[in-house]
Amino acid sequence: MSAGTVHAENLVYSTLDYGYTDRDLPALIGFDVLPYAAVETMTPPGNLYEETFEGFLGIDSAWDCFERVRVDATATDRSFVPATILDRQTTVEPETYSFPSSSLADDIRVEGVVLRSDELGRRAKIVREAFRELNREQFGQRPAEAESGAEYVVETYCTPGRIRKQIRKLVVEDGHEFGLQLNEELYPRVVEDIWAEHWPELMDLDVAFTPADIYPLVAKRCITELRKMQTNAALNDADPLEIWQHLSS
Do 119 and 240 fall into the same domain? Predict the structure, then answer.
């Protein structure tokens, strides 16, 4: 076997709750192999960001490589396994595709699947609409997707970093107990911080918005961020307060 780069996904317990915390996950799942001899074909001249899949091993060769490098007698949470090949179809209709159960858990539907064509050198991912909504709720959406002026302001300025900064001040500096109840004081502070830092930009925005409409949207974003922090702390068996003590303001 010649030298090459194995492309694999490191599975971590997600802040999007799929119930995976009830079982062990493989540490790595392999999905592509690029021989060193073809490494320059991945990024063609002229545009560093225009990646291609030219030169990658075909699916059968890549999966054979995965089987040769994996070690069977390894604990699941430290194991390397090939990605599951769900089907081999010549055509797929993304709009009507029926998403299967996860190969990691029969009782959980996958968030999406990757379609690949070795003949065309293409990869594409399609995801369930429910996952789009869940992901949008957890991480927000692009400002361009906002349906109102207030949504645009929140998507642009109410970032996770801004929310966490105010959480740190409340918990570490002001001595409040961390928890979802923190949101009562958190979201007004986040709104105030947005205005204090960006009021000249807000006054000159090309979109119209009512300032009062920002508050409930920020409150929803803040409670989501608090839940994410709780989930991350639980998954890593950590105390959120101890984590934030080491962060600078």
Answer: no
Q: What value does the CA radius of gyration of the chain take, rounded to a whole number of Å?
A: 23
pTM of the prediction?
0.54
Is it the case that residue 163 has pLDDT exceeding 80?
A: yes
Is the pLDDT score of 216 beyond 90?
Answer: yes
* Domain-terminating residue out of 90, 105, 133: 133
Q: Is 79 exposed, middle or buried (0-12, 13-18, 19+ CB in 10 A)?
A: middle
Residue 142's identity, in one-letter code, is R
Last residue of a domain, one of 133, 153, 174: 133
Nearest to 240 by CA among 187, 161, 180, 150: 180
Q: Are 96 and 13 in contact (CB under 8 A)?
A: no
Q: Quote the number of domains for the chain.
A: 2
* pLDDT (tens digit per residue) in 39-68: 777 666 666 556 678 889 999 999 999 998
Q: What is the reported pLDDT for 249?
A: 41
Q: Do 108 and 24 belong to one domain?
A: yes
* Close Cβ partners of 162 (under 8 Å, ≥ 6 residues apart): 190, 193, 194
Domain span at residue 206? 141-245
The 8-class DSSP code of residue 47 comes to -
The answer to whether 54 touches 40, Cβ cutoff 8 Å, is no
